[in-house]
Write the C-alpha cells for this entry.
Amino acid sequence: MIEENVAARPPEQPPALVLRGLRKVYGTVVACEEVDLVVRRGEFVTLLGPSGSGKTTTLRMIAGFTTPSGGSIEISGRDMTRVPAHRRNVGMVFQNYALFPHMTAAQNIGFPLQMRGVARQRIRERVDEVLELVKLDGFGDRYPRELSGGQQQRIALARAVVFGPNVLLMDEPLGALDRKLREALQVEIMRVSREIGATVLYVTHDQEEALVMSDRIAIFSRGRIEQLGSGEDLYERPTSLFVADFIGTSNILRGRFEQNGEAGGWLTGPSSRLRVGPGATERASLDAGVAAALVVRPERTRILDPDETPPPDANVLDATVDAVLYLGSESKYGLRLADGQTAAVREPSARAGRSWEHGDAVRVAWAVDDGVLLADPG
Amino acid sequence: MAALGGLTVFYLLAPTLVIVPMSFTEARILSFPPEGFSLQWYGRMFTDRQWSTAMLNSAEVAVLTAILATVLGTLAALALMRGRFPGKTLVNGLVLAPLIVPVVIIAIGMFSLYVRWRISGSLLGLVIAHTALALPFVVVSVSASLRTMDRNLELAAANLGADPRRTFTRITLPIILPGVLAGAIFAFITSWDEVVVAIFLTSARFRTLPVEMWEQVRQVVDPTVAAVATTLLLVTTVLLLLVLVVRRQAPAR
C-alpha cells in the first residue's frame, strides 16, 4: 500500500539552483538589482551581458565569495545563502585558472578530495579518471607552469568536477585564450559537462560562445536578467530592444504603434507605414499610440530587383546604398532609409547578375512575419 | 661614472673590511696594517669564557627573536593585508614605527619599563625588545609576498572545500614561504648585530656579542675584537646571501 503511494508520487528532485531576488549593493553602487533564476539539473545556463551588468557578482554570490545584500540562494533544495564557501559543494573554474602553483596537476585535482577526507588510494583512482576525462592522462606530475594555457584550463576543469559538485560555475574560463583554442575548449567543456551530467552556470561576454554552448541564456543588463531563454528564443523573439540590439545585429525601425484588428498592427514612422504581423502584435501587447520599434534581422531582409514586384505579405522601404561589404559567401549592404534611419541587409553573394554600388536607389523588403514588435523606452 | 661608483663602494666598504686583515695579526694589540699571520685570536674567541658565553647568548637571543618575530609578523601582515578592521592604518603605522623612531629612544623607553617589570638584564627582556625591532622587517617582507599572491588561489581553495585554517596552511603559507623565510633571516640579523638596545637591557651577567665587543674595545685593545667582528660580518653576509637564494626560490607566478 505504502509502496504504491510512493510510486504514484515520484519524489520530485529539487532544481539544481534557485535564485530568488538576489541583490548586491556596494555602498551606493548596485551591482545586482534583483536576480531570479531557476536552473534544472544537468542544464547548461549562460549568464551573458556587458561588463558591469552583474553576471560575475551573481556567480560570486553563488560560490559564496560575496555575501548577498538580499534575496536567497538554494542549491539542490538547500538554502545556502549564509553557508560559507567551503561547505557549498560548488565547483568553480576561474578565468586565470587559479591552479595552485606549488602543487602538481594531480595534487591540484586531488585537493578537493583530500579536503573531503577521501582515502589516498581512492583519490589516486579518481584523479586518473578525470585526467582521462579531460584527455590529459600522463600529465599528472607536471606543475602548472609546465603546462600550456589550454592544458591549465583543462586541469582547472578537472579539479572543479572531480568531487561531484552540485553546480559547476565558470567565470569567463576561456577569456584568456586565443580564438582557435577557445573554440576547441568550448567543445571540450560541453563534452565533459554532458558526460558527467553537470549543471553548469557559465559567465561570458562572448555571445557566440553563449549561443554555441548553452541550453538557456540569461541576458544581464544593469543588475537584472533582461531575458532568459534558448539562443533561438533570444535571437528570434527578443522581448526588449536591449536584447534585440545585444544579440546579433538588428535593424531597429522606430515609430508609433497602431492596432489593425485581426491583421495585426501598424508601425507609423515619419515617412513610412510598416505592417506588423498578428503574432508579433499579440506578443508585444502594446497600447495604441505608444512609441515602439520594429526589429528585423539583416539576413531576413532582401534588396529587390529593379523590376521585381514585391510579394503581398512584405514590407517595402525605399533606400539608398551607403556601403557594400563583400564577405565571400555573403554580402552586407549598409542602407540609408528615406527618413534618415539606417538599415543593414545580408544576402548570399551567389545571387547572380546583381551588384549594387554606393549611391544606388534600391527597395528593401522583408516578410511581415519576420518583424518583431517591441516597446521603445526611448 | 664607473670610477665614481667604484669610489663610493670603496668608501662604504673600506671601514668594514679593514677589520678583516686586522683579525689575522700576530701583534698583541689591535693595529693596522697587521703584522704577520695568525689564527690565535679566532682561537681566543672560542676558548675565552666571556667571548664564548656572549656568542652563545647572542645566538640564543637571535634565534628566539627570529621565531617570535616571524610568527607575530606573519600574522600581522595577514591581518593588515587581508583583514578589514577599524584603525588598520594606525596599526600599520605602529608596527612599522621601530623603523623610524631613533633606536636610542626606544632603548631608553624599554629600559625604564623593563626595569619596572623586572625583565631587564634577562634573556626574555632582550628577546621581547629585539622582537619589536625586528617585527617591521617581517611584516614588510611577508606583505610583499601576499601582495603578489593571486587572491583567487585562496578563493579556489575555499571553493574546493578548504576551511580558512587549511586554506592558510596548505595554500597561502607554502606560497608566501619565501617571504616568511626572508623575514625570519632579517629578524635574526636585526637581533644578531643589535647593540644600542642591548647595551641598555643587558647586565654584567648576561651580555650579547656586540655588547661584549663594546665593553672590550673601551677597556683593552685586544685583536680578538677584530676576529669577533669578522665572524659577525661573515654570519650576516652569509644570511643576506641566503635571503637572495630564498627569494629566487619563489614559485613561478
About this structure: Chain B has twelve helices and no strands.
